[in-house]
Amino acid sequence: MSSRHGGVSRRSFLTGVSSALALGVPWELLRAEVVPTLSLLPFLASPTTSSILVTAQNGHMDAEASLQVRAQGETGTAAWRNVERARSVVAGEFLNWSVDNLAADSRYEYQVLMATQGGDPAAGATGTFTTQRTGEAGFTAALITDAHTGTFIEGNRPIEVFDEVVRNVRRERADFVLALGDNVAWPTSRNSPQLDDVGATRAYDMYRRHLAPLSMSCPHFGLIGNWEGESGKVPADSAARVAAVRHRYTPNPNDRTYGQGGSANEDYFAFDWGPVLFVMLNVQSYTTPSGETASARDDVTVVEDWTLGPEQFSWMEAVLRGSDHPYKFICCHHAVGGNAGNDSETLYGRGGGRAAKVGEQRLIHEMMQDLGVQIFFHGHDHVFVDEVVDGVHYTMPGSCGAPWKFGRDITGYRRHWADSGHGRLTVRPDRATTEFVNQAGQVIHEFTVLPL
């Protein structure tokens, strides 16, 4: 029988020690305890007035892991509260902590403690977060879209762009980030059923790694785009296989997280933050191409095919009608319709505000007018756009990674900014300002909406 040292056989371990001693490495250093590390740093999700979800992935050795939190500003080891007792985790295991008994409108610190079996724990990661704000409390949020992480190999320019945008957003200390879809992509994710989860796992793993400097201290809310592999045109078992990866790597609120409800599959939901109601929609999973000639490459065969589906549409209407928030914002990967620079791109859902009166988007647009929605945030076209239709802003915060900057011949937009970057939303009781921030950190456009 051979003993193991963090997954290494006794013979290999002793061979390594002998070799190190022969090279003159001091014995005291060889005796030093190996501290386990995390393979994926913490990711924050679903912050409420009293709770938040923290998820991470253990590294390449078995370990003991625990999580501690304390109110920001408190000092000393006694201020830390154990979320749960340290538990044994195997190499590569995902760690999920539901942190409860928090106070609303409050800032917290946390630390993930890691140790070998029976060893002394050390901080493997630290971060901060703010719980859900209430009343008229002001805040700053970030909007990113179309990273297409998983399409490009490490070191490629689009990955460097994503890293730069992440650093810019991190400096703003936003309460949370809204990722508006096509956050991940891989070669077969748009048009082909997924027979396994390999492509999705690689893409989401890459997304988590590059988002980590931000998501360690900025809760993430994500949307489904064309390339997430969960389109309504793929078989249900394929979409479910990919959704399971999404749930593991980038969990979202479900139908029980917030009072507004949503989808048990975490693909549409709503939440309020201070004076704002955010309604997060899924234009992909409930849309299927019509007609017998539809192929796997057809998202739709006529632009009217785009739909939220009756259940999501009815839920959205009920949430909006039940809201007395002074600000109401809808977020969706693209309009529930299309009106772009040519017929094929129109069918693909491009055009933003140009599609305000096309297909099901017409019904949504009329509802936004009637119920006081000021902004429809979207992605999909990879440029900065702000178009106002009947007083409603159709706003796209650029692209945080995808290098394809579509022009007027594709999108139909008369005015756009072809920079990479992100959107910054600053909310105060008397106004809400959206700024377009390019990759260099410069504000290239801004507008303000007033409360109802």
Secondary-structure map with pairings?
Blueprint: E1 4-5, E2 8-9, H1 10-22, H2 27-31, E3 38-45, E4 52-58, E5 63-71, E6 81-82, E7 87-89, E8 94-99, E9 107-115, E10 122-130, E11 139-144, H3 157-171, E12 177-179, H4 198-215, E13 220-222, H5 236-249, E14 269-273, E15 276-280, H6 310-321, E16 327-331, H7 343-347, H8 359-371, E17 375-377, E18 384-389, E19 392-397, H9 408-411, E20 421-428, E21 431-438, E22 443-449
Parallel strand pairs: 11-12, 12-13, 15-16, 16-17, 17-19
Antiparallel strand pairs: 1-2, 3-4, 4-8, 5-6, 5-7, 5-9, 9-10, 11-20, 14-15, 18-19, 20-21, 21-22
Helix pairs in contact: 3-4, 4-5
Give an overview of the whole structure.
With 452 residues, the protein is of the alpha+beta class. The chain has 3 domains: 1-32, no CATH class; 38-130, Immunoglobulins (Immunoglobulin-like); 139-449, Purple Acid Phosphatase, chain A, domain 2, CATH 3.60.21. Helices cover 22% and strands 27% of the residues. It has 9 helices and 22 strands. It has helices at residues 10-22, 27-31, 157-171, 198-215, 236-249, 310-321, 343-347, 359-371, 408-411, and strands spanning 4-5, 8-9, 38-45, 52-58, 63-71, 81-82, 87-89, 94-99, 107-115, 122-130, 139-144, 177-179, 220-222, 269-273, 276-280, 327-331, 375-377, 384-389, 392-397, 421-428, 431-438, 443-449. The strands form 5 sheets. Strands 13-12-11-20-21-22 form a 6-stranded mixed beta sheet. Strands 14-15-16-17-19-18 form a 6-stranded mixed beta sheet. Strands 5, 6, 7, 9 and 10 form a 5-stranded antiparallel beta sheet that branches. A hairpin with a 4-residue loop joins strand 21 (431-438) and strand 22. The radius of gyration is 23 Å and the shape is globular. The protein starts with a strand and ends with a strand. The model is unreliable at 1-10 and 27-31 (pLDDT under 50).
